[in-house]
Amino acid sequence: MAQIITFGKLQARAVLRDVGRVMQQPYPVTDRLCKLVPNNPADPKTLAEAIAGEARLREARREDPLTAQVIDRALQLEGLYRHASTHAAGVVIGDRPLDELVPLYRDPRSPMPVTQFNMKWVEQAGLVKFDFLGLKTLTVLDYAIHYIAERGIRIDLSSLPLDDPKTFALLADGDTAGVFQLESTGMRAMLKGLKPDKFEDIIAIVALYRPGPMENIPTYISRKHGKEAVIYPHAMIAHILEETYGIAIYQEQVMQIAQVMAGYSLGEADLLRRAMGKKIAAEMDKQRDRFISGAREKAVPDEKAHEIFDLLAKFAGYGFNKSHAAAYALVAYHTAYLKANFPVEFMAATMTLDMNNTDKLGMFKKELVKMGIDLLRPDVNASAVHFRVEKAPMEKDTPPPAAGDPKAGLCIRYALAAIKGVGEKAMEQIIAERTAHGPYADLYDFAERLDPSLINRRQIDHLAAAGAFDGLESNRARIVEASDFLMRHAQATMAMKKSNQTSLFAAADGSPDLDQRPKLPTVKPWDSATLLAKELSAVGFYLSAHPLDSYATILHHYRVKSAAEVTSGPDYAGMTVKMAGAIESYGERRSRVKNRPFGVFVLSDASGGFEVMVFEDGLDNARILAEKGAPVVLDVEVRRRPDDDAVRLSAKSIISLETIAEQVESVLDIVISDARPLPEIKSQTDHFKGGRGRISLIVPLSGGGDVTIDLAGYYRVTPALIDALGGLDGVLEAVNA
């Protein structure tokens, strides 16, 4: 047995990176060049095509001699083999030692030998090739069933009903984030149009949504809903195509048609399928003669037989095996069933399996907001290594969950190991210690009980930035400042344990003497902008709040609509509305028809995420503003296509929200307890002169009442200024009046 070799080629981006590195071009320059090359795996562009279509690449090549050399060398090397690798699923099995049949290769990353022939030539060498596919989704299902079992509910996937109304309602709404095979934007649009109501529809969806068959999707939907008459190529094969509304979708249908219409045996029908798939001209001519003669014996006119053969030949090149589609459809149905009926457990399982992919976790966080499921911050005293399900915290007067509510009053606790840069092994140790000896009482207790060989300062910093210590110390900046001290304290405690000595800071019974411990440093808390930036760095998205929260007054003043309102609320189609968001990413693509460049912003607000297109005349401004985390306000045109329920947003203008905040007429009230903060208030406000806002100092009087002092001049009253003033010693409050 052996795996099968694959050869990686130098494609456009890869060849630029390799040549740039060898020619010692600064990495940022190479990286910027690579990002100008379109990256679409479904339609890869050559470097020459990228240069022809991107003016900035041509300009860089013209203006920088080193860049010109890099591009010229890359054009010569593009397409050559770069490295050998191993096929993801392919395995060959022989009846004798494989080195007697084919040359073998040892992949240093694999314990199994690998054939030196690729998948095309290994079959011609006489070996049988098998594809063994491992699906992560099966593990998601297993995790979800385990979480559900913690509620005392047992789920047997093999006995689930295949006509569950909640499941088909979820599919018809296109609410399929996390659902196997059905979560892409295009697939969601297809589901909304098709409104599947039986399992066979899911099988058809899996088979149709791929290059080639996709062109039949509108016809399939129209015929299913009775908007278009079902037409069969011939009455003789109507029963074969009946379940797919007259459209050939599956390879099995090709074989059945050949049997019924042309008298093929099962073996002959399979040879026909293979010949059509490989499009070998000589074999196709041979099969055409066989098909026509067989159809003639069944009284089918030659002209009609040729027509049907051509139809089958066109289809068979991309036709999908129904048994394969049905297997995928069943897994898709199982995931949709669990999401519809046990959404909290399903999402916890899904997030656990994508724990190391912060982009996917960020997408799932938005889905949780949409679903009304709370995601609680990580906590060293509550989190597990993986995402876990727990009862949602209940306010005093909160009513119990409604009967039949699939969320059942549950929420998801963020996984410790999902925090960037902390490592699963270290988090396992933190949780094992907590399980064995109870919750951590404070930061000292945490340091005294952990193994310093498994955790370091950087991990503590990331845990603090993510909020995992908030239950022990609410000032995250203080924890980061004290992380060196905590590590030294942990090392000293471990050394004393190993030497069987008692700490100088221990009480008579050997337990820690709380009064004798050194004090943690006094540190000013991070302002909200810094806290969120640190949280974004540690988690990959915003957990505790959102950057737009600081601009709530301004957004209300400008009547900004939320993402949830525009994408799923009242129908704003055809209207231009104001939206605001923090930039998560920005990329540029080219239109398929006219090959014109356009940009795509991925943004988020507190209600969820959304995408906005920027057309050619707005690209220069978009590139200037495209900084991760930057808040912007957009005038957005809202569109809906007649055949698609999804909302399309395109920007007519974009402006920095900070720029707007600087020009808003507002009054900032600064309440102070004494004169201590006055010098720093003056220093800070001097940096923000020149806007349209006013500032008032308010001093409470000991006998009641207060004194208000209006500062001279006008100021840019932005969240940055409010945060800076609110954190000063002696400032009781800094708020927009």
Automatic annotation (TrEMBL):
Keyword set, alphabetical order: DNA replication, DNA-directed DNA polymerase, Nucleotidyltransferase, Transferase
GO biological processes: DNA replication
Domain of life: Bacteria
Reaction equation(s) it catalyzes: DNA(n) + a 2'-deoxyribonucleoside 5'-triphosphate = DNA(n+1) + diphosphate
InterPro entries in the record: DNA_pol3_alpha_NTPase_dom (IPR011708), DNA_pol3_alpha_thumb_dom (IPR041931), DNA_pol3_finger (IPR040982), DnaE2/DnaE/PolC (IPR004805), DNAPol_HHH (IPR029460)
Stretches assigned to the DNA polymerase helix-hairpin-helix motif domain: 372-478
GO molecular function, one term: 3'-5' exonuclease activity
Protein's UniProt keywords contain Transferase: yes
EC class name: transferase
One Pfam assignment: HHH_6
Coiled coil residues, start to end: none
Domain named Bacterial DNA polymerase III alpha subunit NTPase: residues: 1-134
Key word Nucleotidyltransferase present: yes
EC number in record: 2.7.7.7
DNA polymerase III alpha subunit finger domain mapped to chain residues: 137-298
Protein name per its UniProtKB record: DNA-directed DNA polymerase
